[in-house]
Design a protein that fits this description.
It is a single chain. This protein has 512 residues and is an alpha/beta fold. The protein has two domains: 380 residues, no CATH class; 125 residues. It contains 22 helices and five strands. The protein starts with a helix and ends with a helix. The relative contact order is 0.10. The C terminus is likely disordered.
Length: 512
Amino acid sequence: MINKIKRHKKLIVGIVTLSVLYFLSRVINLTVLPIFTDEAIYVRWAQIAKQDSSWRFISLTDGKQPMLIWGGMVLLRFISDPLAAVRMVSVLCGFFSMIGIGLAARELFKSTKIGIFSSILYLVYPFTVMYDRMALMDSMVAMFSIWSLYLSVLLVKKPRLDTALILGMVFGGGVLTKTSGFLNIYLLPFTLLLFDWSRKNRLVSLVRWVLLALIAVIMSRVYYSVLRLSPWFHMVAQKDTTFIYPFKEWIQHPFLFFLGNMHAEFDWLWGYMTWSIIILILGAVFLIHKQAKEKLLLLALFSAPFVGLALFGKVLYPRFILFMTMPLLILAAWSLDYMSDLIKKKSLYYILVGVLLLTPMFNSSKIIFSIVTASIPKSDAAQYINDWPSGWGIREIVSYLEEKAFKQQIVVYTEGNFGLLPAGLEIYIVDNPNIRIVGLWPVDENYTAEMEADLAAYPVYYVSNQFQELRLGWDAELIAEYAKGSQIGNVKRSMRLWKLNLDDSHENAKDN
């Protein structure tokens, strides 16, 4: 045992170093980026499911699979800040992704160096740095896709029942996370590129692989069938049509949106992957004849879902392609390894590697330490930083309301009844007996009867977010305004806290 440790001392030190650097890069300033609309929903769902077991499938009410919510339920028991707790689910998923991509690369190319390079690239990759720090499903989707790749490669090279059973569990975890998890199953036949067709008993081996693959797929369906315990199971298929065209709709305009979607996807790919990683990927593709089968498999696992999303995508966001880019990191790692053999002067090689990793490391450091100035695609910057879905001001408003409710009851109305408002406030103060939160949507031009009754009895506050002007028939005093993000360009958004008053006109109306 001691001799083994000595032989692998450098490897062990490298793994420990990578692990420490990973958690530092993901946990530092974890909650500096304000809560995002979808995060507020998921965190609130996790709180409800934790408190009431009958709501463990609450995400299905909006057509979302529950795996992230279940992970959040567990960590909410140990971490007091609800946003940090659910974001830590993604942090942990990213850690297992870093391990998984190293194992997958090592198994594919039979090279520990390529495995380590893959993990290093995952560590500094701006795309993973961004989403491993958010309470969204996409880091978990990437984790299951990476481990599906690793186990699928193991299965096709050495078909064994234990591998198939573990693969079935990973498939099951993927489909319980997001509908895109089914792609791990659909892409499984591509691994036959690695099947040894020259072996004498190839027919027997192929049949064995088919049977074991079927076991894995059946297991995943058994896991997925758990969702049928909820009466809201049908909402998943309904929600999917929000983002993906059903075939009967797609066939009416099969290529109408294809070029536009492809253009957007490549913009996001370039924005997160940076020029240096793309050069490494292109280098591996240029040398496709070296270990061609393995590279073709990785290219297929990237291009098939990438093109499929462009064909069928109705509403697209950059995070949808995160898991698709994982095979590309392995190709980039192959190029780094090839360069180490090509460049004999090690000092020159280390300098070149440092230059290539400098841009992704710089962009990642911006995400960690200065998210407002980070170089990320515009659509993500709008959602998470600069536009109405971002939650700048939520924590400050929570602190203010808790102070006002310390010795008295107050009522808080919010612009919206689902999403950032009111969920962004509820996750922190919904259990405060002195605060009642009421979501409004649509927002009327004048006070509702309920608002007038509350105004007559309690201090009443209002939080606005999307509409930048107050309703015309309201008498309100602006308490605070919190600008969103960089406030660059023509669109300038703020979250505002108002104190509502019952003016004379309302009093007179009540008297009449």
